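note to self — DONT lose this again. spent like an hour looking for the file last time. sequence + predicted structure for the chain T wanted, 220 res
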Amino acid sequence: MQINTKSIDFSADSLTDQGTFSGYGSVFGTLDSYDDIVAPGAFAKSLLSLASKGRSVPILWQHDTENPIGVWSGLKEDNVGLFGDGTLWLDDAQCAKLAYKGMQSRAITGLSIGYITRSADYDQKTGIRTLKELDLLEISVVTNPANDDARITNFKSRLLEGALTERDFENLLRDAGFSRSDAATITSHGFKKLLQRDAGALSGEEVKAVFDAYSIPNLI
């Protein structure tokens, strides 16, 4: 199952000297740059499951699962989105100190959820996808909205899973975070060219070169 990420801007007004803060990890009903909307209730089942297991959601640094820097508490859905209280482990995690300094100075302004899509609706006419049920894995402090290397790795691994139709290919790119228009352009111009190569032999630079050849900026 593919792990996706989605970022929003974070206001550090609530950040304290002890490294505690409050904020929204996700906002409902807002169309993002990927033509996605997170629906109210999207996290309800996941939050119930976490509570029943007595598990907390970690704060990660840049979606690095080996680099937790704190923990979320009181996560809940309200009429705006997914809200919670974060505590950075300033005394125990080196990157927590970096995150704190960045948030305090407004040099680092992003929060980003790591999740698995369980249910979503796609509007063929508008190209808008509504995320109805998400399995919340973590909420990260991030400087950038996406990890380029991770996109390339996920892209190649999915190609190796088997033959893809053009529709599958376009949906794969949408799941990876590409906008509807960019996914359609890549599929239209680059799908057959990629399939002519052994996916296992494609390096990240070669995949990027295919996109660059069609003048599609800022993708991977």
